[in-house]
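Hi R.,

Here's the chain you asked about this morning:
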Amino acid sequence: MEHITNPPHPQLFYLGLLTACTTLFLHEAYPRLSTRQLAPLLVLVPLPYLFAYLCAYHPPTAYGSYITPSNHSARMRDYPYDHILFRPGQLCRTCGLVKPARSKHCSICNVCVAKCDHHCIWVNNCLGRSNYKHFLLMLLSTGVVEYYGAYLAFVLLRPYLRLSASASPASVFSRDTASRILAMLVSATEAGGLSIAGVGLLAFYTAPLPLGLLAYHVYLIWAGMTTNESAKWADWREDMHDGVVFKARRSVALAADEDGARVWARGTAYEGRRSGANGGPAQPHGNSKHADDEPDHAHTDTDTETDDVDDVLEPHTPWPASTDQLIVRTNDGQYPIGQEGVAGSAPIWERCWRLAEVENVYDLGFWDNLRDAFAG
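And here is the predicted structure, written out as tokens:
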């Protein structure tokens, strides 16, 4: 399988900017800082480089995020299919492999990625099961080293950042005070120059960027989602708002119509309420919003699916949670044909209006989700 190598321009920009700022700052600040102030830099400065390398590094296939024929069987047992975002039997037309749960084909890397979060231009690689934890640590270490650099710049410029005591509280907001504050900042900037004042200000104002992104990913971990899955859930939320989503217990749907339910277990949308001559269930119809991430983002008639959802397509996994739910979408907002339920009995399918009515089998609670994120 050929992997596409992308120009690492954003990655080089990130590492180049970090290197240039660190060099400029230490060149001027090193003689003026104490050993106690310099010591943390021995640990803090190398960490962003280390984690950026680990994000971009491709480990051996047995442990890597890239799904290959040699590790495909192991990746199939990482997570169970939830029969909402990920369904058994879906074949990647590019890689020729059945897609494991929570995987995604990246058209940039030209490979399927286990527990794919997103393709990150800053590390020039897809973030998945094996390197997602390094991405989190890269964000954390980048933010910490920036704020520590801003702190050291403040320590060096503090003698120039002093105002005389005001005569009265009202004078704090006077034009004279504003002029003295501006003169103080100009004096501190001239004393520090680009190397200390400029780098310190840049570090202070850009540190919230990696830390803000880290906070978003902490939220995703809390919710038991990846970036890829959050986009899929957003699509389902829109469909639920439109009233075209139905849910059922998979065991009940299979018992009522085994052949139809097995087809529905692999599909996501249906051609209205069309049925064949025998009144059988409508066949699945491709839906670009829920198609599982082919390079053109849509299934076609050439997609290959096995006829039976069995232990080969849906193997047992050690994941501690499982689900019996089945969620489908119909194009006309009507119940899946053939399984409306027998008159006088409880319906097999019920309309689903909110995501709160759906179980996320991948959400084990924050601490277990965090352990899973760092266990890859």
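One quick note: The mean pLDDT is 80.

Cheers,
M.
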